[in-house]
Amino acid sequence: MFIGSLQTSPDTSVAGAFPSPANITGENYSNINNSIDLLKGLVNSGIFTGGVIFFTVVFGLLVGYALAQMQFRGKGVVFGMMLLVQMIPFQLLLIPLYVMIVRDYGLADTYLGMILPFAINSTAVFVFRQYFMQLPSTLFEAARIDGASELRILWQIAIPLVRPAIVTAILLTFIGPWNEFLWPFLVTKDQAIQPLAVSLANYISNIAATASNPFGAILAGACVLAAPAVALFIFFQRQFISTNIGSSVKG
User: What is d(CA 57, CA 62) in angstroms, rounded to the nearest whole number?
Assistant: First the structure.
């Protein structure tokens, strides 16, 4: 993809993976940026994805902690319903979500309208629940005996011990909204707030046919879209695979 984004003329053969210097150019990035504002698209994608991650982590921590460390009637039913939600494809919910978000709430062409359907992620809740269940219950019992509230226990004791789970939830959540096309495309008609994935799709549909090298321009846009995700996984890979929960307990 990166090599194709630098080619003056597209070469999809095996030899195209090793292009000659004469066939290398950076004009594809300039062309795609002139057609769609790459920086604005990245900012919109960042706002959309950042909002989804924020709500996912906040609600995921609260619900995951409650399901793992608190006792209340119907906890098993709630957990079962959460697992059941994961079996429902998002596409089946598009029509009722569209009616609710656009007609009932009037949130068309807004960032909040894009974010709300993804605000609670059952996968993130499951990840946090599993991590919280690994924590020694004696930590929480001692805190409750000292008079700490559940929110204080969550903030001061539980969250510092499940940082790998937070990184995991962020990485698992990030890739979905960052690449999401269908829902932002349905609820946004204003190009000024459309994420980069939607802008690239509009470019393919409306502009690519008249471009001099649409193949290279599309690949250049795809590289720009993929770069933040790759950088995020590389930056957090060590925290993603490491955890040190047991060190908090003195034998």
Answer: 9
